Amino acid sequence: MRIVLVGPPGAGKGTQAAFLAKNLSIPHISTGDLFRANISRQTELGKLAKSYMDAGNLVPDEVTIGMAKDRMEQPDAEGGFLLDGFPRNVSQAEALDEVLQAESMKLDAVLDLEVPEEEVVKRIAGRRICRKDSSHVFHVTYSAPQQEGVCDVCGGELYQRDDDSEETVRKRLEVYHTQTEPIIDYYKAQGLVVTISALGKVEEVTGRAMGALQRDEDGR
After folding, report:
1. Residue 123 is a catalytic residue
2. Which residue out of 161, 171, 188, 215 is catalytically annotated?
3. The Cα angle at residue 116 between residues 14 and 123, in degrees rounded to 5
4. How far apart are CA 112 and CA 217, in angstroms?
5. DSSP assigned state of 75
6. Of the listed 2, 69, 88, 170, which one is catalytic?
7. Who's near 219: CB < 8 A, 6+ residues apart?
8. Annotated catalytic residue 13
9. Active site residue: 13, 71, 122, 128, which one?
10. Which among 50, 69, 170, 172 is annotated as catalytic?
11. pTM for this structure?
C-alpha cells in the first residue's frame, strides 16, 4: 500500500507510522529522516537543504519533493510506503501526484489521525523532559513522576521544553490548520481519506487504523 499519514502535532503520527509500516511491511518515510539522511550523506539535495537551514530559511518545496522522490524510488519502496510529514501543503500534494503519475503509481489511502485540539495541547504541554537524559520523558497527567519535577530514573530535574509550552503548541496548531489541513480536503476530492480517532492507547489506535485501511482497500 502507498499511504500518506496526516494529523495535527501531538496526534502520535511518528509512533503510529512506525507500527503501521511494520504491520504492512512497507518503509516509513518521514520528512525528518529524509533531511537527516541527505545531509549526513552530503547529497546535492542535502547540501542545498542545509544551506537554507543554516541561513534560517525554510527549505523550498522542490528540495523536499526531490528528496521524497529519490526515497520512493528505492528498491524497498517498490511494494509501497508510508509517508509521514510529507506532503505538508497542497502544492506538495500536487507535486506528489505528478511524481506518482509519472511512475504509473497512485496513493491507496490518506490516513487522517483525528484528535481534539484541547487534547493536543494537553498532550504536548504536559510533557516533561529530564535535563540529564532527554530520553527520559514524563507527562504530568499520563505518566507523572513519583516526585514532582524529579526524574524517576536518574533523579535529574524535569523541565518543559520551550516548544512544548501551551502558547507554542497553539501556534503550531494554527500553522497546521492553515498549511497542512487543506490537503485533507484535497485528498477527499480524490476519495482517498480514511479518518480515525487517535484517542486511546497506542495499540488501540494502531488496530483502529489497520481495520480502517483494510476496509478501505476491500471497498476499492
Report:
1. no
2. 161
3. 55
4. 15
5. G
6. 88
7. none
8. yes
9. 13
10. 172
11. 0.88
For the question of residue 172 being annotated catalytic, the response is: yes
pLDDT tens-digit map of 84-138 = 989 999 999 999 999 999 988 999 999 999 999 999 999 999 999 999 999 999 9
131 catalytic? Reply is no
Residue type, 165: S
88 is catalytic: yes
- What's the grid cell of residue 113? 489521525
> How far is the C-alpha of 204 from the C-alpha of 21, rounded, in Å?
16
Bond into 60 cis (ω within 30): no
Which runs of E-coded beta strand occur in the chain?
2-6, 28-30, 81-84, 109-114, 127-130, 137-139, 158-159, 193-197
First to last CA, the chain: 13
- What are 39's three cell numbers? 545531509
CA nearest to 2, candidates 98, 106, 143: 106
- Single out the catalytic residue among 71, 122, 127, 128: 127
